[in-house]
Fold each of these.
Amino acid sequence: MTVKVSKATKRDLKRLIEMFSDPDLKTNIDESDWFVHCYFDYHHINVAKVKGEIQGACFWRIEGERYSGLGWIENLWVEEQYRRLNLGERLLRRSIDDMKVFFEKDNKKLRKVVLTTQVERASARKLYEKIGFRNVASLGDMYDPGGHDLVYILDMQGYSSNPASQERPANDRNG
Ligand SMILES: CC(C)(COP(=O)(O)OP(=O)(O)OC[C@H]1O[C@@H](n2cnc3c(N)ncnc32)[C@H](O)[C@@H]1OP(=O)(O)O)[C@@H](O)C(=O)NCCC(=O)NCCS
């Protein structure tokens, strides 16, 4: 199976809006439309395509002022039937690489990548920890009423991109 990870284009918007109105994300189609357009117009979206169809996406932006050198992962999603095939890791690493380039173009440096997730998102937490993110704080139910949100930070000093696993074709992997 060949997976292509690339920057989203205008032609991807309809599919992204459908994808991000999933009940698991507690969003409807109007909220998804707004969210996708915000990120497409003002921030950054990477998509993972299998046979030309989007099966995953990662939304990112910079956080605060540029001198802070902070990147923010807003959302990472892989369609259920395409999970455990390395799409999520590839999308995340590609987004971190793009953040590095973004800051370098401005003669600045990406220092840290920040994201929040929920305690019950075990797969996401495993992925973040594999890449080197550390859970640094708990926010209680800040974003998710009745839930438990966590803050994860990746310090770029200890980060190594492009490990061998990224280059392995998805169908070489078990599980
Ligand atoms: C989290 C998510 C994006 C992971 O995507 P994925 O494509 O399935 O993940 P990958 O195949 O790239 O996995 C990479 C690593 O993540 C970890 N991982 C991912 N899913 C896992 C699972 N179900 N169980 C254990 N580890 C898991 C593993 O460390 C894995 O590395 P390995 O294959 O070498 O063991 C996907 O499960 C998803 O979309 N979940 C729902 C949405 C979500 O929770 N998003 C995060 C919001 S903050």
Amino acid sequence: MNAIASQTRSIPRRQERIDRDRWVSIRPIERADGPGLSDFYARLSTESRRRRFLGSGSPRAAALTRAFTEPEGDGLVGILEEHGPNDGAMVAHASVQSDGQGGAEVAFAVADEFQGRGIGGTLMQMALEQAQTRGLRRVTATLFADNAPMRGLLRGAGREIVSDEIHAGVEEIALAV
Ligand SMILES: CC(C)(COP(=O)(O)OP(=O)(O)OC[C@H]1O[C@@H](n2cnc3c(N)ncnc32)[C@H](O)[C@@H]1OP(=O)(O)O)[C@@H](O)C(=O)NCCC(=O)NCCS
């Protein structure tokens, strides 16, 4: 593991309570998460995948693993904890990828059945923490302009919005880290 991965992996995990018996544990992504990541995106609804990948369809399993688990630690995953058959399933993913210009591109997805329960908000705070730990100055997200939940997350993150532009129905919002 390189020095940066080691730093990002040192961010403490957090837990979001779903109900009396279930939690989602959010932690930095690891290389071993590749198969879980493919299953997660395969289970996501067509609409959530459309919003996540801006209509371009989700990448194939090998490409997903390559893009999001290397370098290890550049992103986050949410893992379900329950006394039941889905214990250990991946239910959320945030990619936090360097743009090579002192910033990070972020993109989130939460399993359809767990959306609207605060997991996205925790991903946002932890993604900002990861970017900060890596010495990055801003995070940028690209979303469909009608994506109210994602815009809500960005505007509610408690950081200065340094730019917000819409072209052809696609919005790009950048926050100061
Ligand atoms: C966007 C997404 C990651 C948000 O995750 P989440 O766990 O649902 O988010 P939260 O529960 O933390 O809620 C985030 C905000 O959206 C609002 N929200 C949640 N669901 C909503 C809905 N269906 N319509 C409008 N607002 C909604 C919440 O009230 C909250 O706003 P607030 O902070 O002002 O209260 C999730 O909806 C998702 O995976 N969507 C599909 C993929 C996607 O759009 N990715 C973004 C591309 S970068």
Amino acid sequence: MQDLSVYYCPVCGRYSYSQPSGLPACSLCEVSMIFLMPYSDFHFLNQEERDKFLIQKMMESDASLSGRLLAYLRSCSCKEAATLIDPRINQLESENQKMNDTIQWMHQTIWDLLHQKRHLEHQLEKYLTDCPAKQDPEITPPT
Ligand SMILES: [Zn+2]
């Protein structure tokens, strides 16, 4: 138990406990794990201290990790912001739908009125054709 050491995967950060004789490999990433510290020291750290130490070690060995970590955190906050905006988007979409419905109704009403006007014009034409004496409204206005 005294020789037991803690190793970590440089890709996913998983822990492994192993004797120094056998270098463990991460079962997920299939890469060799790196020595973190003797188990006797690791044992006295709480979860937060272990995580902090692991992150420090990972950042020391991979310079691009801090950039990737920040990019991930920023993408999470963007997603969070998008979910906060979501109710407003839904409200705007519903208002847009109401406006589109109103425009559709106005369009239909205009067409109905145009058809009605054309129908009345035809009726007037027919009326004037049936009554030749009343063709000139200046002389004899229709009653
Ligand atoms: Zn891994």
